[in-house]
Amino acid sequence: MNQITQRKFKVINMGVANVTPNSFSDGSKYNDHQSLKAHIEDLVNRGATIIDIGAESTAPFNEPITQEMEIERYENIVIPVLKEIVDKDRFKNITWSFDTYRFDVANFLANEFRDIRIIWNDVSGVNDEAIIEFLKKHQHTQYVFSFTHVPTRERTSFHMDYLKDDIETSWHDWLNQALNSKLLIDYPQRVFLDPCFGFSKSYEQNMWLLDELAQSFLRHPKWLIGISKKSFLRKTIDPNSETPKEELLSRSEVLHQRYLEGWIRGAQERNFIGELAFRVHDPEIISRF
Q1: Can you give the pLDDT at residue 23?
Q2: Which domains can be identified in the chain, with CATH numbers?
């Protein structure tokens, strides 16, 4: 039997659905009812078991939107679609992830959907009492704790202003602090750790973390990893950005797959037991594993 098939851990397929006008890879593609519904159906058909929905782009070149605007996008686009499909048989085993750094938005969505499995995918990296409050109140939820350096939730969109000089020290310090925090002590099985590639990290720091990440898998049983179509992968292929966008994105996905294979192999070699969730734009890249 192939070594990969003998693994003791679960590989989870998270498909991305952005309802933003300005995301690099899919901005404005799915910001109406019919296109979002069709995209979610396509993601599920191609193997996604988690759908990660974002209503605000936190890419460095975008300005933050107001909380009111973010909620409005959920109310006008996302919520009507989900209420139409979540009870259908093909979607009953889907977990719905909401990509927001705002507690009030996550709380609003968890209240709106009390009868489905929900993940608060929080890219802020701020470990505050709001998370404990959220998990206590909403027993049907899980949480993603991200490796960033922003001082407050309000500064999340400006994450590139908060780079650390020493990625190795900051990574191990963050991991140790996370594992010893009340959040991880009280809720180890409800919290994913996310290295949060691209957030408050330089190109060189992202590349270091790509190579070193598997060394930390045994520290925690649940990981979320997302490098699909990230700019540092594109820079690795074409440092001068002279390649046409679609070709560059396609070639970056080939490099993406190589890293996925390496992480899965690394988890297998270390006898990792737990869950590796991969956030991807093309779920078929994970279905192969």
Answers
A1: 55
A2: 3-287 (3.20.20.20)
